[in-house]
Amino acid sequence: MTGPRVVLVGAPGSGKTTVGRALADSLGVAFRDTDVDIEQSVGKPIADQFVDEGEPVFRQREEAAVATALTDHEGVLSLGGGAVLSEPTRRLLAHVPVVWLQVSSGAAASRVGMGVSRPVLMGNVRGRLVALLAERTPLYREVADHVVDTDALEVEASVADIAAWLADRVSS
User: Domain span at residue 69?
Assistant: First the structure.
């Protein structure tokens, strides 16, 4: 296995799942989301995992899920918004093409709504997003090989941008 064609990182509401699925379709490869992997392996939603076991336990599961997916998935891989908090994960990401789907707190807030299924956004969604972006932006920047600002871009335009970037990487 060679690893994923591309890994998508970004804050909640940046479009990792939506853009990821469309990109995978466009490239003719499989799409995988590590949050879904974790929910399936544990048997309950991430929000419930946060409540029942706490964020540190979830982050350990996430680190393991990302490491597994990076070795056994060859398509488009979407990581949970907080996956970049892990230093071991950031080291692993240095070996694969990573696209940061950048989003403003305003655009993200309008996309995620009240954040019911997103435990890190419970309460003041916009305020939590501002804090998350402040904490995580340097980490997204650190791991990213390419950045796509998804605020004003339609899904198709984001997919076209990433596909062109990937094609450029192969030809150079």
Answer: 6-171
